[in-house]
Design a protein that fits this description.
It is a single chain. The protein is an all-alpha fold. It is 84% helix and 0% strand. α3 (69-83) packs antiparallel against α4, α6 (127-143) packs antiparallel against α7 and α9 (187-203) packs antiparallel against α10.
Amino acid sequence: MSTDDRIARARELYERAVYGGDTSALVDAEQGLDAVEADAALARGRILHARFQSADADAGSLSSEDPAELPLFERALELYRALGDTRGEAEALFWIGCLYQFIRRDNETAVPYLERSCRLAAQTGDKPTWSEALRHLGIAAHRAGQLDEARERLEESSRLRREVGALPGVASNMIGLAYIAAAQDRRADALATLDEAHTIARAHGAHAIMRHIEQARTQI
């Protein structure tokens, strides 16, 4: 059911209660609105996260965490759990884990959220969230020096992203795979991976990813 449908349904059930005296469906109306609130909180949190990611490039200064971001993701998680929406729960868990890893640089806190997200997304067949969780678990493994595990996670994430047509995401993963190859003294493989990533990113207008590819090429 769409957001508009849920709001219209709540209006209908309100009128049924007020004019007809039937209050039995008000719980259903409230649950529908909880779902709308959860979706909106998650979407608003993602917007704040995107602003954090782009702040350095746009302003040339260090980014700072928006204090509203984590509470939005936590509220979404609370509502999805209460609604029994496992798919939504997996996505909210991912974003909480991503915030701890990407913004706060706290893998110890992030990994349990990402692992739980990965399990739930796999159970529900939510390949986009599943692939995101795998990617960030791969990043965590890379930072911990577990290069084989990191490579496996990123390759599985890329497979899922190809299945859903998220090719710019594949190119993004390939940057991580190139760094892993370089760390394993496979420099030729690393540079070839970056070449392929650049081809994919350019074909899809993924300019931000292309900048990251050039940074990786310089470092490798």
